[in-house]
Amino acid sequence: MARYSELLSRNVESILDALPEGVFISDASGISLRVNRMYEQLTGLTQEQIEGKNVRDLVHEGTFDCILNPEIVRTGRPTTRVQQLKNGKKLVLMGFPVFDSSGQLRLVVTFARDVTLLARLQDQVSGQCRLIDQIHDQLAYVAQGDKKAREPVYASKAMEEVTSLLQRFADTDATVLILGETGAGKDVFARFTHALSPRRDKILLKVDCGGISESLTESELFGYMPGAFTGASSKGKAGYFEIADGSTVFLDEVGELPLAMQTRLLRVLQDGEIMRVGASSPRKVDVRIIAATNRNLAESVEAGTFRRDLFYRLNVATVRIPPLRERREDVRVLAEHFLALYTAKYHKAMAFMDVTLEMMSSYAWPGNVRELQNLVHSMVITLNGPLISPRDLPAQISGMQRDVSPYAEDVLNAGRPLRDIMAEIERDFLLRAIATHGSVQRVAELFHINRSTIFRKLQVSKGSK
């Protein structure tokens, strides 16, 4: 055995040099003792340059950005870290304590493995994942059925005029500006315009101008060069305008763009050029812009929050989407459209009573089409059906106070005209009768009253509350 031990001792350096990983050996005080040949190749540092130096001094000099020795000496446990070298290489360090026969820590042995290529590949994969995430939502609608399924749903003359205008705009490459309140359906009409355009076979890339933080807006819209800022990908990244080259960019809530980004957007509209963050020369892009906002851009221009020249560039082919309260005849067809959509999704069979749709049509819908859609979605999920009656509507729409008797104590204590109380009782009776018998026509026949009188009493009673 002594013979073998001596053989190993005489050849320990050759053994270290034969290892495929870098080896760095230091003592408990941090003095560098030995590195093997692979470590010299990985780092460019020789045994002569390192031997006798304290690892803390090597960090202080900038040779390394991190070391394992002090932590391993303090804890007595193995440790792993990633080390960045001056030459750009990344090493994974795995350090292990070495104890003598009395249990005292004497040495720290650190193995180093080059993961530079792996890190670069990881950066590339991360960049591709971010790119996929950016366009995933924009591609999703392509698989949502045929073109007809993406057409706007309406019955009003006002919306017929809107769609007629957009059909004329679609054939051109003119910038389209869609105005309308939040929830009015600007997104639907932007997609409708793109679907009719010569660019229909390419993606419509939607950018939520109000949903990107101001610090990230520039890099998200216009992209950046490799190493343009701290945390930037080593490969750089294409912005939204480059991704949509040859197609259409939908700038939703364009009125929310910071002034600095408005200047950059103006360059895209005027010259068809973008400049990546950190770039020294522009890139040509061919994109069509569809913009939408719920703001009054003319007022924003006067207030100094929106560039006048950008407003003129955007205000080429402009259309206003009327709020739902100005096109009440659309409520019925939209409600039935959403009901069909969600009952198919959740495998239910449900239908609206006529009186329910009448009440919904008389409501102001401050949240516009989005509020209507969310309400129908909620009712399909929560109700058993098969008929959706007025009692299933929220109180602000039906005017009904759920589970409250018309003879409640506050009513008996007066304070309200008798005609209003009787109107409320009449309304409550009619609503219950409709819910019981299933239709206004059936209630009219049973109680010998005209349909028009029923609707009038329901509406008048609601207005008197």
Overview of the structural elements:
The chain is α/β, with parallel strands linked by helices and 465 residues long. The protein has 22 helices and 14 strands. The strands form four sheets. A five-stranded antiparallel sheet has the order 2-1-5-4-3, sandwiched between helices. It is elongated, with a radius of gyration of 36 Å. 26% of the residues are buried. The model is unreliable at 137-149 and 401-408 (pLDDT under 50).
Query: How can the largest sheet be summarized?
Result: 5 strands, antiparallel
Specify the helix fraction band: 40-55%
What's the end-to-end separation, in Å? 104 Å
What's the pLDDT, averaged over the residues?
A: 83
Q: Strand order across the biggest sheet?
A: 2-1-5-4-3
Output the number of helix runs.
Answer: 22
Main features:
five-stranded antiparallel beta sheet; alpha/beta
